[in-house]
Amino acid sequence: MARTNFDMLLQAGCHFGHLKRKWNPAMAPYIYTERNGIHIIDLHKTVVKIDDAAEALKNIARQGKKILFVGTKKQTKEVIAEKATSINMPYVIERWPGGMLTNFPTIRKAVKKMANIDKLMQDGTFGNLSKRELLQITRQRAKLEKNLGSIADLTRLPSALFVIDVMKENIAVKEANRLGIPVFGIVDTNSDPKNIDFIIPANDDAKDSVEVILNACCTAIAEGLEERKAEKADEKAAEAQAEEEAVETKPKRTRKARKDEAPAAEEAVAPVAEEEAPAAE
Length: 281
What we know:
8 strands
């Protein structure tokens, strides 16, 4: 598994926290010092936390489960979408729809509605609609795509949440906590880490900082997915080999055995025929 080192984090600016007056005392264990009124995060602890999170994410991916990435900050949207798409995982980079986890069936209905609109457009059902009605449906489809298009393949609740800026995405964190879904989060010095299962103390505002952390985590997830494929391939190969061995070990009747069986069968039939003869008279 690819490891993130101290220098990579330092160059990406992961060590820059928030102003001292905005800090959350719960983040004290992860703060190294303070310079010019800004807290500096201890990157040695960040490296350890990234490795722990990456290992856990790899195990989740190996089991074939989904990890939902959440981050609605303008400067990190593109990075999140790119990294999540590369490993075929769902993500939310627009407004978090309230109840997305706790009221998941309703969200699925909205996703199905989007699919139904696509189907009706393709089979020509909308051909008889007026331009105004068609425009309304097209706008509705675009809105659904913007908010829910990235989770269209999420047919069941995710097995984990990866959150960038746990304070901004506090509603998503609360919903995950309520359902017992583990939360992985990039936590800055102004945030409360108590509801985060896997804390990654780092700058959650800078694009480079978020990118270097996502690189490490997504690489681990990709490795987990590859291991799952390899395990499935090995299982299929083992099943095929077991079937072949079963066929090979199945006893085959020799020509001599078949000849010996024929007289025995005739002898077994003969008494039956003799017994039936008087009844026929």
